Amino acid sequence: MNTNRRKFLKVAGLSAFALTSGLAQVALPETANAQLAPGGYGNSPKSLHAKRWAMVIDTRLFKSADDYKPLIQACHHAHNVPDIPGNKNIQWLWVDTYDHVFPDDMNEHMSAKIKGTVFPLLCNHCTNPPCVRVCPTQATYKMADGIVAMDYHRCIGCRFCMAGCPYGARSFNFFDPRKFMAEPTNPRFPTRMIGVVEKCTFCAERLAQGLLPACVEASNGKILFGDLNDPNSSVRKALAENYSIRRKPNLGTQPGVYYLI
Amino acid sequence: MLEKLLTGPKRYYLWLLFLVCVIAACAVAYSVQLMTGLGVTGMNRDVSWGLYISQFTYFVGVAASAVMLVLPAYFHHYVKFKRMIIFGEFMAVAAVCMCALFIVVDLGQPQRMANVMLHPTPNSVMFYDMIVLIGYLCLNIIIGWVTLEAERLQVEPPKWIKPLVYLSIIWAFSIHTVTAFLYAGVPGRHYWLTAIMAARFLSSAFCSGPAILLLLLFIVRRLTGFDPGKDAIKTLATIIVYAMCINVFFYLCELFTAFYSNIPGHMEPIHFLFYGHGGEFAWVSYWMWAAVVMAFASLAILIPPQTRTGKLLPLALIMLVLASWIDKGLGLLIGGFTPNMYESITPYMPTCTEITVAIGVYAIGALVLSLLWKIALGVKRDVNNFCD
Fold it and tell me: Among A161, A146, A246, which residue's Cα sits nearest to residue A198?
């Protein structure tokens, strides 16, 4: 994507946000600016950059589902992910059993350890993301650093991306998410509106501030995050030294999330 | 020609009034959906498309099926179809209107739908789907109206309409092909990932669409005396039976590939559709078996020439339409999303609100169809092209 369009997207996104959130009508222009200023991505001198962001999850260091709870909490709190009961829920980061996470890798006689543990799921930020291919409005798009991002203000809620994603990484706001939000919400990240799709963003907004993704930070080193194109990065070293797998690699999407088993 | 809408028997006005009341009642359900969100439907995180998109798909087929009248009439100069071509074209117009509405009611943010045009995305099949559907709608409105006007004035249609007619024939194939590509190009949805999806769509459209047309024309014949012509009905019934045979054959091809290859991903959706999960039938399984029975029963009536145009024809057509509707209007979407992306089962069943909204769209389609057909029937009556 060229810079002009990104600039346009930014402006359009912020304007739409201002309009829909009622800021433009209620607040004075200066107040609105003051509130919106931290939303700018990638301008801070502290911000982290990569050619291709990737994540390596060392699942050997997690003992049970409880070990993932702080990570999920950190993620869902940082991004104002609502807690909706039932199967119309929103999930950015969650856990499931081996046969559900890696359904192509079927083996009745897996070790008890593998069978008994859970594995985390999130958006894979694919190199060839089917969701981006099918989106009719470019509301979901791939950034230059490999992150698959969402423009909540452009999404028309057609859910083609959810049909397209082979990982079930996307959630649709079947209800108004603001009614299901735990207090206090994080004012530094926008809440979404009803009728749009959302998902993990690899914490693009935190990278812009020089912070690692919320789940990586909460994992105490059990999840690595770095540049896949840099041979000296932590992720590349971990992948070189360990056996790793990815979800549904036969579909050619080239997931950016690796699991050490 | 619009003046034809203003005169008619009492039951014509009562029918319109009935449709308007149905639409108004269903609009209430849609407004509930608008205010509370798509949470009022049975769709969920794993089955993210449901009744609306499946109805959209089915009616793209109905729209495309007009070509089964237009193609023989214009490519093969089969004049006996000429009297009822207009009804096929106007049915296509009503069907495309329904398609558009089914998409709109399925959107989470319908007020943003212009984004598809404001941010044209050539890599998205939905972008092409929008183009071909709008194009097909315009073609059928122009062709239908101009040829009907010519008939009313009892002159030959203008020469410039011919290229548009030929274009509309190719276009009809394109609308259903592109709609099939919405599904057939998605990785990881095993039930949809099949190269004959477009061919299946076309064959099921070319049997079910003309079947619906014939059934509706039988009702019109009973009500107004308009007769499409004995030979025309016979020929159309033959087209329907060929298309249905190909449709069933294609489905059996899917079964062979899935089960002979023994690849679990390809077998599981079909297994779920027909046998449910964990030894228990899913609700859709009963429908699928009903579709199987009705498909073969309709063929049993339609294949022998003696019964094809006999008294059982309407019954055979009704069974054929129901069978193809279950296959495409229920099985296609449910099979595509079940098992889900984690190879587990998330059930889906449309809710009352969802069904009510769908009925509302059906009623709008019926209203558009009634008005257009009223005009066509009025013109046909004036120029004595009403029956043999």
Answer: A161
- Phi first, then psi: give them for residue A58, nearest 5 degrees: -85, 85
Express each pLDDT in B89-109 by its tens digit: 999 999 999 999 999 999 999
Same domain, yes or no: A66 and A173: yes
- A19 and A121 co-located in one domain: no
Give chain B's end-to-end CA distance (angstroms, integer): 23
Judged by DSSP in three states, B277 sits in: strand
pLDDT above 60 for A30: no
Those of residues 70-109 in B touching chain A at CB distance below 8 A are 103, 106-109
pLDDT band at A29 (very low <50, low <70, confident <90, very high): very low
B340 neighbourhood in chain A, CB within 8 Å: 168
Instruction: Note which residues in 223-252 of chain A have CB less than 8 A from chain B.
Output: 248, 251-252
Mean pLDDT over the full length of chain A = 87
Contact call for A155 and B125, based on CB within 8 A: no
pLDDT tier, A3 (very low <50, low <70, confident <90, very high otherwise): low
| Per-residue model confidence as pLDDT tens digits over A159-182 | 999 999 999 999 999 999 999 987
Decide if B117 touches A, using CB distance below 8 A.
Answer: no
Residue among B44, B121, B336 minimizing CB distance to A137: B121
Verify that A122 and A8 share a domain, yes or no: no
Q: What is the pLDDT of residue A27?
A: 42
In this predicted structure, the answer to whether residue A25 has a pLDDT above a threshold of 80 is no
The whole-model pTM stands at 0.90
Could you tell me if A198 and A231 lie in one domain? yes
What is the ipTM score, two decimals? 0.92
Does one domain contain both A231 and A181? yes
Range of the domain at A177: 37-260
pLDDT at A35 over 80: no
Instruction: Summarize the confidence of residues B289-309 as an average pLDDT.
Output: 95
Tell me if chain A has a CB within 8 Å of the CB of B16: no
Mean pLDDT of chain B: 94
Interchain CB contact of A196 with B (< 8 Å): yes
Q: Say if residue A230 is in the same domain as residue A191.
A: yes
Q: What is the CATH number of domain B2-382?
A: 1.20.1630.10
* 8 Å CB contact of B124 and A133: yes
CATH number of the domain that residue A246 is part of = 3.30.70.20
A208 touches B: beta carbon within 8 Å: no
Q: Looking at the 3D structure of chain A, how many domains does it have?
A: 2
Q: Specify the 3-state DSSP secondary structure of B280.
A: strand
Q: Which long-range contacts (CB under 8 A, 24 or more apart) does A185-188 make?
A: A185/A80, A186/A77, A186/A78, A186/A79, A186/A80, A188/A38
